[in-house]
Design a protein that fits this description.
By secondary structure, the protein is an alpha/beta fold. The chain has a domain of 70 residues. The chain contains three helices and five strands. The strands form two sheets. It has a three-stranded parallel beta sheet. Helix 1 links the parallel strand 3 and strand 4. The chain is elongated, with a radius of gyration of 24 Å.
Length: 105
């Protein structure tokens, strides 16, 4: 958009919006499990301070409601600090049936 600043027509500037246009692409959600009983559940959290405590509380709550589930831990901070040899293979081999994502501030 060009605007005349002085009103005389002598000086014009073009004002640009520096914010990128949002592109929204719909994503079909993953199919929901009928039950979590007996499933492999990955507890994923973003690696924030005291997030491990929050994750343990969530796990305790899930254990009261879900029978015979197996819990797999994964921390986002591992993505930044690097995985130890075999950790990614171990996570991939665990093939979780579902993921509970925990976001701590």
């Amino acid at each position: 958009m060009k605007q005349n600043i002085t009103g005389t027509g002598e000086t014009t500037i073009e004002i640009l919006n520096p914010v990128a246009q949002k592109v929204i692409r719909p994503v079909k959600p993953a199919p929901r499990l009928d039950t979590l009983d007996g499933k492999r559940i990955m507890l994923f959290f973003n690696g924030k301070h005291t997030g491990e405590i929050f994750r343990e509380r969530v796990k305790e709550g899930l254990e009261k409601r879900i029978k015979d589930a197996h819990y797999i831990y994964f921390d986002q901070k591992l993505l930044f600090t690097g995985l130890l040899p075999g950790e990614l293979a171990e996570i991939e081999a665990s093939k979780p049936d579902g993921v509970v994502a925990l976001w701590c501030a």
